[in-house]
Write a structure and sequence with these properties.
This protein has 78 residues and is mainly alpha-helical. It contains three helices and no strands.
C-alpha cells in the first residue's frame, strides 16, 4: 500500500501543477491525504519489523517535509 499511496502523491501533485484556484488547492489536499496514508503504512512496516529504525527515521523526516509543503499549498488560492 505504501507504493500505491506514494505514487498517488506524485500523480496528484503533477495534476495540481497546471490547475488554478480552488481546484489546485484541492489537488494538493488530496496529495496530502495520500501522504498521510504513507505515514500509516510506515507505522505498519515498523510494527512488522520490516524496516530498521534509521530507515524509518529518514523516511518519516522526508514525509513530514512533504506533508508540510502540501499543507501550505493546499491552503493557497492560485
Amino acid at each position: 500500500h505504501l507504493l500505491a499511496s506514494s505514487e498517488s502523491v506524485v500523480l496528484n501533485v503533477a495534476e495540481a501543477h497546471p490547475a488554478i484556484g480552488a481546484e489546485r488547492a484541492r489537488k494538493f489536499r488530496i496529495a496530502a491525504g495520500e501522504a498521510a496514508e504513507c505515514q500509516a503504512a510506515l507505522d505498519l512496516l515498523e510494527v512488522q519489523g520490516a524496516l530498521d529504525a534509521a530507515t524509518l527515521t529518514q523516511l518519516r523526516t522526508l514525509l513530514d517535509r512533504e506533508l508540510a509543503m502540501l499543507f501550505r499549498l493546499g491552503r493557497r488560492r492560485h
